[in-house]
Amino acid sequence: MTELDLIKLAEKAILKLKERNKTLALAESCTGGWLSKIITDVSGASAVYQGGVCSYSNEVKMKVLGVKEETLNTFGAVSEQVAVQMAEGARKALNSDIGIGITGIAGPLSDNTAKPVGLIYVAISNENKTLCTELRNNFTEDIRLQNRFSAVKTALNLLGDI
Q1: What's the N-to-C CA distance of the chain in angstroms?
Q2: What pTM value is reported for the model?
Q3: What are the tens digits of pLDDT across the range 7-36?
Q4: 98 near 35, Cβ under 8 Å?
Q5: Eight-class DSSP state of 25
Q6: Sheet with 130-136: strands ordered across
Q7: What is the 3-class SS of 99-123, one letter each residue?
Q8: How far apart are CA 69 and CA 162, in angstroms?
Q9: pLDDT averaged over 10-residue windows placed end to end, the chain, 162 residues
Q10: What is the number of H-type helices and E-type strands within the chain?
Q11: In angstroms, what CA-CA distances link 118 with 30, 79, 84, 143, 150?
């Protein structure tokens, strides 16, 4: 799969959002805005895409997205609980129907916790439910690139399913 394939997935997701008259907001950490880039590579994305927050620091996660300090202290920045709060926070902060939150360890260096490189959480939230997928990637080449690519692909697939 290539970046062009990601853009094709984004085109399908955007078309589905347009058909359902739904808007999208993103909160990205380990992907560094790559999902926002793929979404905005699609002509007409502005009809559904409200915006995104690249929340690399815990401070931004808390102040902008409303992630609770207690959640960060209890579960760590790379956790299902934080991804869920990021998705819900993006949805609320950007007044959107759907929010996506992505947090993880892209590598190749770890974050000095016991959590492995390749552990990534992708959450998606709408007004009725929030779902989260855990990735445990184990790439051996281009580790950082592959982990980030995997997270973006997973988010686009989840977007197509909600």
Answers
A1: 22
A2: 0.97
A3: 999 999 999 999 999 999 999 999 999 999
A4: no
A5: E
A6: 49-54, 24-28, 98-104, 119-125, 130-136
A7: EEEEEECCCCCCCCCCCCCCEEEEE
A8: 28
A9: 94 96 98 98 98 97 98 98 98 98 95 91 96 95 96 94 73
A10: 6, 5
A11: 10, 12, 18, 8, 9
